[in-house]
TrEMBL record:
Domain Mucolipin extracytosolic: 86-267
Organism from which the protein derives: Periophthalmus magnuspinnatus
PANTHER family in alphabetical order: MUCOLIPIN, MUCOLIPIN-1
GO CC, alphabetical: lysosomal membrane; plasma membrane
Name this polypeptide is given: Mucolipin extracytosolic domain-containing protein
GO molecular function, one term: NAADP-sensitive calcium-release channel activity
Record Pfam families: MCLN_ECD
Length: 326
């Protein structure tokens, strides 16, 4: 038969009476810690809106994350637009060069010749188009002098085996694999050194041991479409090589054009009604500000996760979040 009052109350809080009041207090402390942990977990998995309703604090950390996303997105868009104009300008000029310097060129069709006269015709056509470029091209191009053979503007070269003798009748051949390069230079007609430009028509190819024929020259151009984006135009130098490949000696010579572009800032730009330096500096300033805001937002978020120094002078410590009463 149970006693009156105190024994029943003690048995409700502490099932084992023999443990005493110390054991009962430890159990209550453990339950409080469990409850606090549940509250922390519940708060941790809350959405920013639920945290705002629970604690009354604005989700500034979410705002910083959105700000970083916006900054990075703007930087990527600006970088993509700039690169798109560069790639487009190079591709369009490469297509123009193929139509200008390759005889009877058609898009997506391989250029091939099968006779000696055809090969000579393609060589002469490319050089004549180069010499008449200012009068025939829709683009504004400038010659680059002193980059070819003997300080010329254009180099016409043939590469062939040092010694080559092929006799299909007797199924014999005699070849020295060392390669010899023979070149001649061509200059635009309005330069003083253009008196020897007729030499390219007397350039004799050694077909029986020919490896390839190359025509190398450079042209300069300016990408004006960047003005639409309030940017100073860039200056381009196109290194163009026309290759006529005869390595296989199969009776077919493949013709291709390769274009390698280099970019640099133009000298003394002048845009009417605009200050080129101001425009260039403002564009660079915008990119610099965007680049500066991103690390600042990261540092701000890092700082907000740290508790300030308390009144007792204890050092601050970084936390991952708080757990208000929910």
């Amino acid at each position: 038969m149970s006693g009156y009052g105190s024994q029943d109350r003690l048995s409700d809080g502490c099932p084992h009476l023999g443990e005493g009041l110390g054991g009962c207090g430890f159990q209550q402390q453990q339950e409080e810690e469990e409850e606090a942990l549940r509250r922390k977990l519940k708060y941790f998995f809350m959405s920013p809106c639920d945290k705002y309703y629970a604690k009354g604090r604005k989700p500034f950390k979410l705002g910083l994350q959105l700000l970083k996303i916006i900054i990075v997105t703007v930087q990527l868009v600006l970088f993509g637009l700039s690169n798109q104009m560069v790639v487009t300008f190079k591709d369009e000029n490469t297509a123009a060069f193929k139509h200008l310097f390759l005889k009877d060129y058609q898009d997506n069709n391989a250029q091939e010749v099968y006779s000696q006269d055809q090969l000579y015709s393609h060589i002469h056509f490319a050089i004549e188009q180069y010499l008449a470029l200012p009068q025939i091209s829709l683009g504004r191009y400038a010659y680059v002098l002193g980059v070819g053979y003997n300080d010329s503007a254009l180099s016409l070269c043939q590469r062939y085996y040092k010694r080559g003798s092929i006799d299909p009748v007797n199924d014999t051949f005699d070849i020295d694999p060392h390669v010899v390069t023979n070149c001649t230079g061509v200059n635009p007609q309005y330069f003083n050194s253009a008196s020897g430009n007729g030499d390219y028509k007397n350039f004799t190819l050694k077909f029986y041991k020919l490896i390839n024929v190359t025509i190398d020259f450079q042209l300069k151009a300016i990408n004006l479409q960047t003005i639409l984006n309030n940017e100073i135009p860039d200056c381009y130098t196109f290194a163009i090589m026309i290759v006529m490949d005869n390595r296989a000696h199969s009776g077919k010579v493949k013709i291709s054009l390769h274009n390698d572009a280099s970019i640099k800032e133009c000298k003394d730009p002048n845009v009417s009604a605009h200050s080129p330096r101001h425009t260039s500096q403002s564009t660079r300033s915008q990119r610099t500000v965007l680049g500066f805001l991103r690390p600042v937002s990261c540092l701000t978020r890092r700082w907000t996760l740290c508790e300030p120094v308390n009144h007792e002078g204890k050092p601050s410590r970084c936390i991952q979040g708080s757990s208000p009463t929910v």
